[in-house]
Amino acid sequence: METYELLCQPLLDACSVMGVPADFASETAPALHEPACYLRDIHPAHDVICNGDKLSGNAQYRRRDSIIQHGSLTYHATPERTLNCFVDPGVSTERVHERITGIDEHSDVSRTDAVQMLESTLKTWANATEDGWTDEERARAREIADEKFERSAWNRDGDDPMT
Predict the structure, then answer these.
(1) Longest CA pairwise span in the chain (Å)
(2) Distance between CA 27 and CA 52 in Å, rounded?
């Protein structure tokens, strides 16, 4: 719980700057459809809502002493496009629209400005500076891509060829 709160802080800070009243969900809500992330149940540990509707969903992968957090954030909700991904989602476009929201429904900030505000708050939060990749970093990235991410063992079978 604490790591979600810590790692979502830049997102919440950016929403505040944009005038979007976002926060973690205060209670659970049942799933509308599985396995679509925005249609899954709402959980206070990792879902960010705005005026009761889901704005951002987050998940973590933990391994040894590492955490990888990823998430989604909606700028403009398109329930019909979401539902078109499924043969029979069993839920109406209207119901999905009642569940999810986008930044543009709560602020007049442009998508480009929203991305810039998110980038700025993350940069401040992480005390990061912009820089380029070194030749060594580029070479190592290429090596990992060749040895792992371009291999069927990883992409089709889920086996890590580098372990």
Answers:
(1) 51
(2) 10
